[in-house]
C-alpha cells in the first residue's frame, strides 16, 4: 500500500506486519506472556472520555511544550526501542532525522543497533537527545557509558527500572532471531535460542536497587528519570530520592503481564502528588499504547508532562523509512491540533483534569 494511504498510526502497523521479516516483526510486536497488558495499554485510553468546552476562540492552536527544560513542538518523544536495524538497514538514525524535522526529542537506547556516537552524530544543530540506560552488572562499564553520554551533550538519563530480567515474549522466542541487523554494539556475546530480547540483555543487573540512585547522582549532572515506575508509592519514593522525573510505563507490555496501564497509574498518582504539593517537584511521563493524539491529550489532561511513543515509529520506519516516520509524526501533529481545537483548548497549559471523565477508567 501507498504511504499516502496510511491515515493513522495503526495503519503503519498493518503494513509492517505484512512486509517485515518474521523475526523482526516478532521482536518489535511481541509482549510478555498472554499480552494482556499490551492490549490494555491502548484500551485503557478508550475508557477516558472528554468534557469538551465550546465557544472558545480556537483559531490559533499551539501544541508546543517543554520537557525537562527542552522546548518541543508536540508533547511526545520517541522512546527508546532496541535493535533499530531489524526494521531498517540504517537503524535508529532514521528516527533521529524525523525527530529533528518535527522538533521532538529522541531517547537513545543502550541496545541500539547503531552506535551511540552514530546516533548523536546524526543529530543536527541544537537537537536534543536523551539516553536510556540498562545498568550493567559491571558498574565501570555503566559509568563509562553515562559519562560519555554527558560529554557528548545528552540532556537526560533515563534509567530503566522495570527490567531486572527480560520478560518472556513467546512470539519473539518462536521466531528464533535469525534476521540480519540483530547485532548490537555493546560487544556482548549472545545466545539466540530464547529470542532477540533475551539474547542481548544478559548483562543487565537484577541487583539494581534504590540504594544505587545516589551513585548515579554522583557520576552525572544530567537529570535522572526512572523509566518503568508502576505504582504511586514508587513515584513518591522517586521524589524522595531526588530524581527529576519518572516514566510511568510497563515497557510496552513486554515485562510483567498484568502490570497496569501507565494512564491508569497516572490518574491515581497525580492527585496524590498534588495533595502533597509535590507535582512541581518531578516531571511525570507516560508511555505504552499511545496511538492517537487524543491519547496524548488525555495523558496531559491528567498531568503528564509528555508521552513516549515506541512501536508506531518502528513500524513506520520499517515499512517506509524516513518518509514513513515523517508522515507518522505529521499525522499526530494534525490530530493534535484538531482535537485540541475540538475540546476548546488553544495551548497545552490549558489541558487539565476537568476536561476528562475518568469515572470508567478503573472499570475494566
Ligand atoms: C522497547 N522498550 C524498551 N525500553 C527500554 O527501556 N529499553 C529498551 O531497550 C527497549 N527496547 C524496546 C524494544 C521494542 C521493540 C519495543 C516495542 C519496546 C520499551 C519502550 O521504551 C516503551 O516503554 C514502549 O515501547 C512503549 O509502548 P508502545 O509505544 O510501543 O506501545
Please give a handful of descriptors for the protein shown.
364 residues; alpha/beta; two-stranded antiparallel sheet; 13 helices; 12% strand; binds ligand FNR
Subunit organisation of the chains: single chain
Q: Figure out the total of helices.
A: 13
Number of strands: 12
**Secondary-structure-derived class:** alpha/beta
Which runs of at least 5 residues are low in confidence (pLDDT < 50)?
none
Inertia-based shape: globular
Task: Assign a percent range to the helix content.
Answer: 25-40%
End-to-end distance, in Å? 35 Å
Nearest-angstrom radius of gyration?
Answer: 19 Å
Whole-number mean pLDDT: 94
- For the largest sheet, list the strands in their spatial order: 4-11-10-9-8-7-6-5
**Main beta sheet: strand number and arrangement?**
8 strands, parallel
Strand content: 5-15%
H/E topology pattern: HHHEEEEHEHEHEHHHEHEHEHEHE
Report what the structure shows.
One of its GO terms (cellular component) is mitochondrial intermembrane space. Keywords: Flavoprotein, FMN, Heme, Iron, Metal-binding, Mitochondrion, Oxidoreductase. In the C-terminal section; belongs to the FMN-dependent alpha-hydroxy acid dehydrogenase family. In the N-terminal section; belongs to the cytochrome b5 family. Homotetramer. It catalyses: (S)-lactate + 2 Fe(III)-[cytochrome c] = 2 Fe(II)-[cytochrome c] + pyruvate + 2 H(+). It is a single chain. With 364 residues, the protein is an alpha/beta fold. 39% of the residues lie in helices and 12% in strands. It contains 13 helices and twelve strands. The strands form three sheets. It has an eight-stranded parallel beta sheet. β10, α12 (293-301) and β11 form a beta-alpha-beta unit. α1 runs antiparallel to α13, α4 (93-102) packs parallel to α13 (311-343) and α12 packs across α13 (311-343). The mean pLDDT is 94. Ligand FNR binds next to α2 and β11.
Amino acid at each position: 500500500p501507498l504511504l499516502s494511504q496510511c491515515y493513522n498510526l495503526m495503519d503503519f502497523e498493518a503494513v509492517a506486519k505484512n512486509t517485515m521479516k518474521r523475526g523482526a516483526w516478532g521482536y518489535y510486536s511481541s509482549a510478555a506472556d498472554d499480552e494482556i497488558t499490551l492490549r490494555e495499554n491502548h484500551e485503557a485510553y478508550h475508557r477516558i472520555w472528554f468534557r469538551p468546552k465550546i465557544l472558545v476562540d480556537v483559531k490559533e492552536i499551539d501544541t508546543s511544550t517543554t520537557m525537562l527544560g527542552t522546548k518541543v513542538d508536540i508533547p511526545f518523544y520517541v522512546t527508546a526501542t532496541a535493535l533499530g536495524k531489524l526494521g531498517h538497514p540504517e537503524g535508529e538514525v532514521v528516527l533521529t532525522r524525523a525527530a529533528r524535522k518535527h522538533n521532538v526529542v529522541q531517547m537513545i537506547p543502550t541496545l541500539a543497533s547503531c552506535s551511540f556516537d552514530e546516533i548523536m552524530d546524526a543529530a543536527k544543530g541544537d537537537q536534543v537527545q536523551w539516553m536510556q540506560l540498562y545498568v550493567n552488572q559491571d558498574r565501570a562499564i555503566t559509568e563509562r557509558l553515562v559519562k560519555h553520554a554527558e560529554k557528548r551533550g545528552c540532556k537526560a538519563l533515563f534509567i530503566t527500572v522495570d527490567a531486572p530480567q527480560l520478560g518472556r515474549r513467546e512470539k519473539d522466542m518462536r521466531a528464533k532471531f535469525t534476521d540480519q541487523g540483530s547485532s548490537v554494539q555493546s560487544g556482548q556475546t549472545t545466545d539466540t535460542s530464547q529470542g532477540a530480547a533475551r539474547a542481548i540483555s544478559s548483562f543487565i543487573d537484577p541487583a539494581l536497587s534504590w540504594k544505587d540512585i545516589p551513585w548515579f547522582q554522583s557520576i552525572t549532572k544530567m537529570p535522572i528519570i526512572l523509566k518503568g515506575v508502576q505504582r504511586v508509592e514508587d513515584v513518591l519514593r522517586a521524589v524522595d530520592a531526588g530524581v527529576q522525573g519518572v516514566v510511568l510505563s510497563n515497557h510496552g507490555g513486554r515485562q510483567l503481564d498484568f502490570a497496569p496501564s501507565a494512564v491508569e497509574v497516572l490518574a491515581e498518582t497525580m492527585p496524590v502528588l498534588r495533595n502533597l504539593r509535590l507535582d512541581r517537584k518531578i516531571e511525570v511521563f507516560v508511555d505504552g499504547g499511545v496511538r492517537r493524539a487524543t491519547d496524548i491529550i488525555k495523558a496531559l489532561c491528567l498531568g503528564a508532562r509528555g508521552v513516549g511513543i515506541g512501536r508506531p515509529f518502528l513500524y513506520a520506519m520499517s515499512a517506509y523509512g524516513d518518509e514513513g516516520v515523517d508522515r507518522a509524526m505529521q499525522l499526530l501533529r494534525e490530530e493534535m491540533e484538531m482535537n485540541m481545537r475540538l475540546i476548546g483548548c488553544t495551548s497545552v497549559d490549558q489541558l487539565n483534569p476537568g476536561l476528562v471523565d475518568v469515572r470508567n477508567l478503573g472499570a475494566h
